[in-house]
Amino acid sequence: MEIFNKLEEYDYEQLVLCQDKSTGLKAIIAIHDTTLGPALGGTRIYDYETDEEAIIDALRLAKGMTYKNAAVGLDLGGGKAVIIGDPKAIKSEALFRAFGRFVEGLNGRYITGEDMNMTQQDAAYINCETDYIVGLETGSGNPSPVTAYGVFKGMQAAVNEIYGSDDLKGKTVAIQGLGAVGRRLAELLHEAGAKLIVTSRDQAKVAKAVAELGATEVGLNEIYGVECDVFSPCAIGAVINDITIEQLKCKIIAGAANNQLAESKHGDILEEKGILYVPDYVINSGGVINIIDDISGREYNKANAMKNTAKIYDACKKVFELAKRDSIPTYKAADKMAEDRIASVSKIKTIFNRK
Question: pLDDT for 258-269, tens place per residue?
Fold first, then answer.
């Protein structure tokens, strides 16, 4: 991979490779854009097959965070970090503290938080070395429940767009992934009367959803072809690709996973197929909305966080309206919203201030 060509493609600012031999740390921090403010994005742990795969994922996720933060009106840029390795094998206090020192070395250009396969304890270890981390137990805490609520509200907006009502009772939702967000989303949908079809690599989580939520289990690759109203990707990205897109039998795609489209062309194909795609970085923005108090220094207010997260419904509706107005796919409408905001802020002239 020609790294600088990759960075230039979407105008990334910085790529940091982090290595610590004593702890086994191998991590990548990608900073996409800081026009609106410091780059915010969580750290995920994943056992990538190659270093190149890890770099590409970090870059994709960082860009998604730029657009997410811009689209929902936050004064934050976009970044992301990945730690390479099996999360069941590599975790240690020393490893996370080593990573925290790399974050601290960026002096606030990047603010991290909890993401896939990270826990509150992992985040606390990082916090021993840097204050540039949000979502701690002493602040807003685990953002997953709020993220799930935001996805639920965005799903309601999509169902309203297609069926004319927010009511999810009797609607069939196929959920891919039952992690912290996917599980809570499943609970909210169950409470709303939806019928659930689920899959996960963790069989225990599937069994629990079947027993407690009346869900129907399908195989990992079967989930794409089930008859449903909503397909909800809540695990890894790039699941809408050349192979899966022809299998889809849904009216709506609305889920928590980042970078659901493997390529932009897949958003065009969904539009041609008449499938309403709810752009991932808009619908899953509840997590970043939840931690704003942490960044501002205010005391966390859960009621306000939930109230602001509920506005994801309106943000999704705005995307749908823009897409119809300009006759463009929804993913392009969301990009336009984000890019227009970044461009308008970048044009504000600077005022000299001697420090």
Answer: 889 999 999 999
CATH numbers and ranges of domains, the chain: 3-62+77-127 (3.40.50.10860), 144-285+312-340 (3.40.50.720)
Over residues 195-240, the pLDDT tens digits come to 999 999 999 999 999 999 999 999 999 999 999 999 999 998 899 9
E strands along 270-348, which residues? Answer: 276-277
Query: CB within 8 A of 152, min separation 6: which ones?
Result: 185, 188, 189, 192
CA distance 334 to 320: 9
**What average pLDDT does this structure show over 126-146?**
89
Structure tokens at 334: 């969301």
Catalytic site residue from 26, 63, 80, 171: 80
Are β-strands 252-253 and 43-46 bridged in parallel, bridged antiparallel, or unpaired? unpaired
Give the CA diameter of the chain.
Answer: 64
CA atoms within 13 A on the CB side of 326: 15
Closest by CA to 78, choosing from 31, 145, 11, is 31
By the 8 A CB rule, do 309 and 146 touch? yes
> Which residue, 211, 116, 194, 206, is CA-closest to 156?
194
pTM over 0.70: yes
How many other CB atoms are there within 10 angstroms of residue 114's CB atom? 25
Percent of all residues in the chain with a pLDDT value above 70, rounded to a whole number: 98
> In this predicted model, what pLDDT tens digit does every residue of 313-355 receive, in sequence order?
999 999 999 999 999 999 999 999 999 999 998 888 666 667 5
| C-alpha of 232 from chain center | 13
Under a CB-based contact definition with an 8 Å cutoff, are residues 45 and 117 in contact?
A: yes
Per the annotation, the verdict on 80 as an active-site residue is yes
